[in-house]
Design brief:
Number of domains: 1
Distance between the termini: 53 Å
Helix content: over 70%
Largest sheet: none
CATH class: Mainly Alpha
Order of helices and strands: HHHHHH
Number of helices: 6
Shape: elongated
């Protein structure tokens, strides 16, 4: 197996593993969530894992483009640190929102997550423009997730 293929598999596996683990840990909480009042425009429950899988794949491809780019090691390392931080924030948002039911805390956590995603996107784009573009759907989805998060909090206080 070539070095490029190994790097691609690793770059895809990392975000998918983070998402998969958080989904696994929050699986039981989904039934409770579906019983809550939902804001307008809430998508059906089956759509969330589909969207998140696509977003995690796009993130993985973006990180691969950054890893393979001819940027300095310091710039690449900084971008990947931001990337790792946003993955961690993403993971813990799921736990806060679904498992712990901390809806308002989760909303503010999501704002922090969005800011770190934006910084990651800008860092990625500075290294490889396509990598930044691949992060844009994630940024947009997290805005929508913020609306849903705040709506669920507001409608179920």
């Amino acid at each position: 197996m070539s070095q490029k293929l190994r790097e691609l598999i690793l770059c895809l596996a990392v975000p998918l593993a983070v998402g998969g683990l958080s989904a696994y840990l929050s699986m039981g909480a989904m039934e409770e969530f579906e019983a809550l009042n939902q804001p307008p425009l809430s998508p059906p429950g089956w759509l969330f894992p589909v969207v998140w899988t696509v977003l995690f794949l796009l993130m993985g491809i973006a990180s691969y483009l950054v890893v393979r780019a001819q940027a300095s090691q310091n710039i690449t390392k900084k971008a990947l640190i931001f990337y790792g931080i946003q993955l961690g924030l993403n993971f813990f948002w799921t736990i806060l929102f679904f498992n712990l039911g901390l809806r308002l805390v989760s909303f503010f956590w999501l704002i922090l997550l969005w800011c770190i995603i934006l910084l990651t996107t800008l860092q990625f784009a500075a290294i490889r423009r396509q990598a930044g573009y691949l992060m844009l759907p994630y940024l947009l989805w997290v805005i929508f997730a913020g609306y849903l998060n705040l709506g669920v909090y507001w409608l179920n206080r």
